[in-house]
Design a protein that fits this description.
single chain, about 700 residues, alpha+beta, 6-stranded mixed β-sheet, 5-stranded mixed β-sheet, about 40% helix, elongated, disordered C terminus
Length: about 700
């Protein structure tokens, strides 16, 4: 497959700047650097693109970087035949078009010098400073001679750790991969497929998470052409056959412009063609495509308030498709993306999707973190990954806002922090590589609130298990359950955006997770921690007491209640089993058949039912006898030795078990029903406290309704 065949063409190009001409650039590069007074001809495209975003940028450092890169790569050629210097130039142009600042462009020109030439990191540091040196080091591959088959995963680990300090490392890597994918046609088909799969599984998700849509969409199309050539050819032909499809959107765009002019809302209305993968997905979703399905309308305005003004006018003057409305301005995506999405139907019934955003939102939507440059005036790039404190040094981004000590670092989103944490617990390259792909496959994120204050960022579909390990790390091994929005919930509960979570931990630090937790873990950190604990404690796996699977009953001789006295001669007094009253409970009695008076606690539901039937109550008092019998309900989470610990607590309190029933677990929760004999009713509160203190138990209550056991 030729390089041109893998190139989706101008249809997928988001920007109007021309693609770099490698042949002309190669000829310019072979002429060597220009005189000291002017920029080399080969840098003309880069200079124009950079000045478009940064008019006051100092290009002297770029000239200096080009001279070093050209001289060090001189004599090297790509497999396509062009001089090797054309590759760093093309990568630099990609980043310049996205608006990257001068430091990033300097590092991108030098990104292969340390890896492929005799230039050393010390030389780069001496010539260009620590910041550029850090970026070049971050994208430099590890040698296969030293790492063998682990070289690729360990290189990505190194880049991700470096990205934790400076996101520009990954920006350069993404641009590097994009140019390599554009020219991949000279490779063998099997190598094309291998590189395309890594791009699909790792680089494209990273581009999405960093918000660099301009790179992500073109990478998707290039991968689509290599891995799915038949579907790609069909989609390409479909787009070609509908070359006039844009006319339908153009007609609607004129109507939109007219409506906004009449409303006196300054706005720019553009028709945005869909890229190949987007057209393919739309065809799979909708079947036959209409003319307006091959693109979308983009409305650009000056202020946030104007976005909602445009939305109001469109929904007033056109027929809105309410199911298509999404507000990513009030609730931005986790990759910094902000926009209003809607769809409206024109007079002829044609439906057009509309994106509404400000010019700044559009810049960030296209370039993501590349548009942010360096978020601080200056940082120490070789500081710890966990450090976000500013430090003195050169290389500050022109125009960056001063760091005020409170600004949230946009280069350290929640997903990146989680990735940096779990990769430390995955020393095995295979485990890291497999887990990285699985982690990046989760492309949405939610935010949940901690009951004690603070936030947790988690991938969509995360459960209480994931929240426990995100908040407590390895201490989550002894987690028993959770309260979600104030209500008790099993650890398997899937969390939603905005939920409030309180994790319940056992006092016994020796307790550990159940193998079933792996079925509910969605984050890599949780899965690695659980797997590690289970591997280190094989004796805990499969313990029968961990989760009782059937009802168990322990019985003893039942004792009657002789300490309740009624003012009814000859009557037999029995304490109700539904509420098991004990001294000094407030009680009342009702005559039933056989001359029996049934005694209930006054708050028992049976009392309300008897009164509704006009049954006359009988006065009841407590006699001198102190022995009593009570039924308690115990709610707990399943864990090893739970039943043994409960019965030990009951015995220690001096109570006798008359009967006990353990119901089968439901969603990791277990319900116990105990009928206990106490030598003294005064000991009941202490008994209930002792049972509540047993690890795994979250509630102990008196019987309040007829038992079902």
């Amino acid at each position: 497959m030729s390089a041109e065949a893998t190139n989706p063409g101008a249809h997928s190009r988001r920007r109007g700047l021309p693609r770099i001409d490698l042949r002309r650039l190669g000829r310019a590069a072979l002429l060597g650097p220009a005189s000291r007074d002017r920029l080399p001809d080969a840098m003309g495209h880069v200079a124009d693109a950079h000045r478009a975003h940064h008019p006051d940028a100092d290009l002297s450092v770029l000239r200096k970087a080009y001279v070093l890169a050209e001289s060090s790569h001189r004599g090297q050629f790509r497999k396509s035949g062009e001089p090797y210097i054309t590759h760093p130039l093309a990568v630099t142009l990609i980043l310049a078009e996205l608006g990257a600042e001068t430091t990033t462009l300097t590092a991108s020109l030098l990104h292969d010098t340390v890896e492929d030439t005799d230039v050393t990191l010390d030389q780069v540091r001496a010539e260009f400073g620590d910041e550029v040196c850090y970026l070049v080091d971050g994208v430099t591959k590890l040698e296969k001679v030293d790492y063998g088959a682990a070289a690729e995963p360990e290189t990505f680990r190194k880049m991700l750790v470096a990205t934790g300090n400076d996101v520009r490392v990954m920006s350069i890597k993404l641009a590097d991969r994009l140019h390599n994918m554009r020219t991949l046609g000279v490779m063998r088909p099997e190598k094309q497929a291998r590189i395309a799969k890594v791009t699909r599984d790792v680089l494209i998700p990273l581009a999405e998470r960093l918000g660099v849509q301009a790179l992500k969409t073109e990478l998707e199309d290039l991968v689509f052409a290599i891995l799915h050539p038949e579907e790609y050819a069909h989609t390409r032909a479909l787009i070609a056959d509908n070359a006039t499809a844009g006319d339908a959107l153009a007609a609607i765009s004129e109507d939109v412009r007219r409506v906004l002019r009449e409303a006196d809302i300054p706005a720019e209305v553009l028709v945005r063609p869909r890229h190949f993968v987007s057209v393919h997905r739309s065809r799979l979703k909708r079947g036959e495509l209409r003319g307006t399905d091959f693109g979308r309308l983009l409305v650009l305005v000056g202020e946030d308030a104007d976005c909602y003004a445009v939305l109001g006018e469109l929904h007033t003057c056109f027929t809105p498709v309410i199911s298509e409305f999404k507000d990513f301005i009030a609730a931005p995506k986790f990759n910094l993306y902000q926009s209003l999405h809607t769809a409206v139907a024109g007079p002829d019934g044609a439906v057009a999707e509309v994106l509404i955003r400000t010019h700044q939102m559009h810049k960030v939507a296209e370039a993501g973190v590349v548009a942010l440059g360096n978020p601080y005036v200056s940082v120490d790039p070789y500081a710890s990954v966990d450090s976000a404190e500013p430090a003195d040094g050169a290389g500050a981004t022109a125009g960056a806002e001063p760091y005020d000590g409170e600004r949230a670092d946009p280069t350290r989103p929640g997903w990146l922090s989680r990735l940096l944490e779990w990769q430390q617990a995955a020393p095995d390259p295979d485990t890291f590589w497999t887990t990285l792909r699985a982690d990046l496959a989760q492309d949405r994120e939610i935010t949940v609130f901690r009951a004690e204050g603070g936030l947790l960022g988690l991938p969509a579909g995360a459960t209480c298990v994931d929240a426990a390990y995100a908040q407590h790390g390895e201490a989550a091994h002894c987690c028993l359950g959770a309260r979600v929005n104030g209500r008790l919930a099993p650890l398997s509960t899937v969390l939603s955006d905005g939920d409030t979570v309180q994790l319940l931990l056992a006092q016994d630090a020796a307790s550990g997770p159940s193998p079933e937790w792996l079925d509910h873990a969605r984050t890599a950190a949780a899965r690695i921690a659980i797997t590690g604990w289970l591997a280190a404690h094989p004796e805990a796996v499969g313990t029968p007491d961990a989760a009782p699977r059937a009802s168990h009953a322990l019985t003893a001789d039942r004792r009657g209640a002789a300490n309740a006295v009624v003012d009814l001669p000859g009557a037999t007094v029995r304490l109700a089993g539904c509420c098991t009253p004990v001294p000094p409970d407030a009680v009342t009695g009702f005559p039933v058949r056989g001359g029996v008076v049934r005694v209930h606690r006054q708050e028992c539901r049976a009392v309300e039912r008897m009164r509704a039937l006009d049954r006359e109550p009988v006065a009841v008092s407590w006699g001198d006898a102190s022995e009593c019998q009570v039924t308690l309900y115990v709610e707990s989470f399943g864990r090893p030795r739970l039943l043994a610990d409960l019965t030990e607590a009951i015995a220690t309190a001096g109570a006798a078990i008359v009967s006990a029933t353990v119901e089968p677990p439901s969603e990791q929760r277990v319900r116990h029903t105990y009928t206990l004999g106490l030598p003294d009713a005064a000991g009941l509160p202490g008994l209930m406290r002792a049972m509540r203190d047993v690890p795994g138990v979250y509630d102990v209550s008196r019987a309040q309704h007829p038992a079902t056991a």
